Structures are given as structure tokens and as C-alpha cells.
Amino acid sequence: MIYFVGAGPGDIELITVKGQRLLKTADLVIYAGSLVNPALLNECKEECIILDSAMMTLEEVIKAMVEEEMKGEDRVVVRLHTGDPSIYGAIREQMDLLDERTLKYEVVPGVSSFCGAAAALKKEYTLPNVSQTVILTRMEGRTPMPPKEELSMLASHQATMIIFLSVSLAKEVEERLIKGGYREDTPIAIVYKATWPEEKIYKGELNQLSHIIAENHITKTALIVVGDFLGDTYERSKLYDPGFTHMFREAIK
Ligand code: SAH
Fold first, then answer.
1. How far does CA 187 lie from the centroid of its chain?
2. CA 139 – CA 32 distance, rounded (Å)
3. Which of 15, 62, 226, 251 could form an SS bridge with 161, CB 3.0 to 4.6 Å?
4. Is 227 in the pocket of ligand 1 (CB under 6 A)?
């Protein structure tokens, strides 16, 4: 069996119980070496083969999986992806090639780095009357974006926005977000290596974004988070409001 496993954002205790159990039993682990915390591999069996996918092509990854599977029905292959595999994980292309070969696989979710960043910031992305929508996106770089998802168009909603893979394009991010509709003083944060021991948080306003990134030499493994959820104004939630009746509780008169 082949398992696509979310490794979580960095802290080795943030992998799921299931993911950890599979890692302990795996005969082959292919992990995304550039982002996955290698300490997660310490509990693998001694004879487990460990490959770093940073140096491999898609075809090489699939070949390694197939060869391991051919060794016997009881073989366990773990493809370890950073955060949650469904976000910029490039798992679809792997699953499609496995389907072609009628090989079975399962996906084990993980804690995405955007959740790790909220925890690091001690913030809630969805505040009543501030934003009830979270946009996960990226800036176009060497990988193009669908034209309808251009950053300034997404910015028109002024919702909570989490921008992956884009710290090296910070100036452009800043300009497009302001052009799209966010105020220049919209609060922003850059979360570097959320949940890792070397985690760092930088806060400021949108018009300072590229300056903060340049000044602190942040070049990778960081998220840009944008929105008034980082501010101090919001309404209390109805769910816990004494005057609000819902399925489980009568309003206190
Ligand atoms: N599947 C991953 C995202 C992979 S794309 C997830 O769910 O988190 C890689 C990008 O994710 C990085 O460029 C960076 O923007 C972000 N990232 C991954 N881990 C991070 C972390 N611990 N802290 C901040 N950003 C992180």
C-alpha cells in the first residue's frame, strides 16, 4: 500500500497519529527534503529506505514506489509531503500515474502551514464582521497562475489572505494587493518556519511588506498573511452570545 502522508508544518508532534504509525512501519519513505522536518524520520525502521524527492523527477518517484510495491503485498510506502498534501503538494499527478498502474493508495491529511501560522500568531482567520473567508493563494512566478486568479482580483474581496511560495516576489505582491483594494495600512504578518524551533514572526502594514522581507533576508519557507483579522476590532460570535438562541441553548432573558 502507498500512503501520501501530510507531515505537518514542522514541529514533529504535529504529524497525525496515523501518519506517525505509518512512518514507523514503512519500508520506503520518499520525503520532500526541502520542507519536511528530517527529525520525523528518526523513528523509521532501520532497514527502511529513505529517499529525498528534492533530487527526483515525478517519474523517478513513481518508479521507486512501484519497485517497492513489487517486492511484496505487505510493503508499506510513505510519500511524505510537507503540511497537508492537498495544498501545493503535486499529489494529483502522482495519484494519476498510480491509477494507470492500478496501484492502491490512501491519503493521510496533515496540518497545513497556514494553520501552523495562525497558531503561531495566536489569531483567528475568520472573525465576525471582519472576514468570514480565507483565500489561500500564491503569486505567479515561474509557475503561472490562471488569469482569473490574479492577485489583485482576489484582493478585491479584502478577505483574509494567505500567500504561499511568494516571499521572493514581495514587491509585486505588495503592489498588486494595494492595487486590488486592500488599504495600504492593512495589517500583515510574515511567518517564517511556523512551528519549527527557528520560527519567526514579523508584523507590519501592507505598504511595509517588501521592506520587512528584504530587511530580514526572508527568502523561503514563509507565509505572507494579510487582513484585518490581525487587527483588534471584531464582533463577538453569536454562538456564545447569551442573547442568541440556537439548537443547543436557549437565550438567557
Ligand atoms: N503542503 C504545504 C505547502 C507546500 S508549498 C502546506 O500545506 O503547508 C511550500 C510553501 O509553503 C513554502 O514556500 C511556504 O510558503 C509554505 N510553508 C511550508 N511550511 C511552512 C512553515 N512551516 N512556515 C511557513 N511557511 C511554510
1. 21
2. 22
3. 226
4. no
Residue identified by cell 463577538 is: 236
CA-nearest residue, atom 17 of ligand 1:
221
C-alpha cell recorded at residue 149:
486568479
> Is residue 253 scored above 90 in pLDDT?
no
The secondary structure element, H or E, covering residue 68 is helix 58-70
197-238 pLDDT, tens digit each: 999 999 999 999 999 999 999 999 999 999 999 998 888 888
Residue 193 CB–ligand 1 contact under 6 Å:
yes
* CA 137 – ligand 1 centroid, Å: 11
Rounded Cα distance between 180 and 156, Å, is 5
* CB of 53 sitting under 6 A from ligand 1: no
- Ligand 1 contacts CB of residue 194 (under 6 A): yes
Cβ atoms < 10 Å from Cβ of 108:
22
The CB of 9 under 6 Å from ligand 1? The reply is yes
Name all domains of the chain by residue range, CATH numbers in brackets.
2-108 (3.40.1010.10), 113-230 (3.30.950.10)
AA identity, residue 226: V
